[in-house]
Write a structure and sequence with these properties.
Order of helices and strands of chain A: EEEEEEEEEEEE
Number of strands of chain B: 11
Largest sheet of chain B: 7 strands, mixed
Radius of gyration of chain A: 14 Å
Oligomer: heterodimer
Order of helices and strands of chain B: EEEEEEEEEEE
Number of strands of chain A: 12
Distance between the termini of chain A: 41 Å
Radius of gyration of chain B: 13 Å
Structural class of chain B: mainly beta
Largest interface: A-B, 23 and 22 residues
Helix content of chain B: under 10%
Strand content of chain A: over 45%
Number of helices of chain A: 0
Shape of chain B: globular
Shape of chain A: globular
């Protein structure tokens, strides 16, 4: 089946430092998966951070970037300079073009940013 | 604007007791609906999905059942809870671009 593996948390980083959360996927049943990063901030619901549906393309949102690399089956999330407000749990996910069957999620990575 | 509401926010139940969790979506006609479950320390695991009223597909067997009695309503239930049912349950719907919109979730503790 399909699966997503991401950096095991928790990850602790100081404000203004860089952050990278690794994500690799295996899409055995999907020829051209769409890739997503979701985020849950403390006290809030799970929400979409960014998505990329075409291999080779980069998505960005709130200073975060992720590039869809089909060769390495990766979709790492990066931010050059984090802020305390980036403290959250981040989930990598994949899905197919026909979204009826939903998404497959990774375990999630808890990130804590300290001032 | 679409809204998604889950109830209850939290439940503490005894092993062997029944459970019913609900989800209502407003502002979206004929949405694809999903139930996800997350055990403590685990990943978000899809349990069920439904693309139309009266039809529900099971993705993972956890001795739970789901029903879609109305276009905007999705119900998760069981007659006998197990300890392993504890966790966080999320209802979601997808937009035409595949983005999942989640509810606030229901936290279930089985004792």
């Amino acid at each position: 089946g399909d699966s997503v593996t991401q950096t095991e948390g928790p990850v602790t980083v100081s404000e203004s430092e860089s952050l990278i959360i690794n994500c690799t996927y295996s899409a055995t049943s999907i020829a051209y998966p769409n890739l997503f990063w979701y985020v849950r901030y403390p006290g809030e619901g799970l929400q979409l951070l960014l998505k990329v549906i075409t291999a080779g393309q980069k998505g960005s949102s709130r200073g975060f970037e992720a590039t869809y690399n089909k060769e390495t089956t990766s979709f790492h999330l990066q931010k050059a300079s984090v802020q305390e407000s980036d403290s959250a749990v981040y989930y990598c996910a994949l899905g197919e073009n026909n979204y009826a069957q939903g998404l497959t999620f990774g375990l999630g990575t808890r990130v804590s940013v300290f001032p | 604007a679409q809204t998604i509401h889950q109830w209850p926010v939290a439940e503490i139940k005894a092993v062997g007791s029944p459970l019913s969790l609900g989800c209502t979506i407003k502002g979206k006609s004929s949405p694809n609906l999903y139930w996800y479950w997350q055990a403590t320390g685990g990943t978000l695991q899809q349990l069920f999905y439904s693309i139309t009223v009266g039809q529900v597909e099971s993705v993972v067997q956890l001795n739970l059942s789901a029903s879609r009695p109305k276009d905007d309503q999705f119900i998760l239930s069981t007659e006998k809870l197990l300890l392993s049912h504890s966790g966080f349950y999320l209802c979601a719907w997808t937009s035409n671009t595949g983005q999942l919109y989640f509810g606030e979730g229901s936290k279930l503790t089985v004792l």
